[in-house]
Design goal:
2 strands, two-stranded antiparallel sheet, 5% strand, mainly alpha
Length: 332
Amino acid sequence: MPMEKPTNIIRTSIYTFLQNYQYFTTTVAFLAFPFSSSLLLSQLFLTSSFSSLLPFIYNRLRTLFQAAGFPSCEFFTILTLKLSQTLSSSIFTLPFTLTFLLFAKASIIKALKQHHHKVSSSPPSFSSFLSIFNPLFFTHICNSFVILSANATVFAILFFAFNFLEEIGFSPDWLLFFSATGAVLYSIFLANALIICNLALIISGMERRTSGYLAILKACVLIRGRTSTALSLALPGNLLLAGVEALFQYRILRIYHHGRNFDLSMGSEGVLIAYLYSISVVLDTVVSCIFYKSCKASFLIEQEEDRYSYQIEITEGETGDYLRVKNCEELP
């Protein structure tokens, strides 16, 4: 069976979401609501005059890039600003990410762990999905280090590339062209790292004794040959989340920055937008779970057809569990 098309995976995900509409839009959505609220409110607090976190991070990153010898061009100015906003928002929402968001993802993974799409009429108890919270937590921490390493690698490559171009005397027009090329390459590299980390988070919840860097390594193997499908699935989800954030900026931040004080109607609208963001997070996680199941089914069939000469398994050792890659010749 070949890998399912992105449209089929999205259709299956929407069907699964609608089959369990009440559970996903109440229990899970309210679990994710504090994270969604903190993420949206971070845009308000970080841009207000009361917060010095964003200017502090921006100035430190700009000083670091200047000390490293990065050229003073518009590309690195924009990149520094976006990185500062991302880091500031991540720090602001970190407590909610490590608690409410992971609990929401754990509840979704626990519900969809079975082979059927219909969740039981009695939703999983708190203790049932708490059992997979620890693997999710450990994998999320490891994912953070992977993302930091990916950014450091790209910056190192850009540093040597731009310094080499300046040494050989390229014109500013060529530097602008290479800046745009660097932005595209950076986006592609980071998108692949985020996809692998997201799949590793699903794997750590779906499979026993697989978490942390083992889950990331297994995600790298499992996604082989399926990167284009993963990117096609990630694009609609990210556009949906970005659209909800843009709606919050237009309906709440724009009015607030024009000097209007918060009132009941604005607060109610903000709560509704945060709830829509929670629904978007839930739907994106459901898509990731269905994508994992599709990857797993395709990978097992490819192994049966000897299209790959390895098999992944978790082996118990004296010092703990470790990942073993076996050749097909070793298989019984």
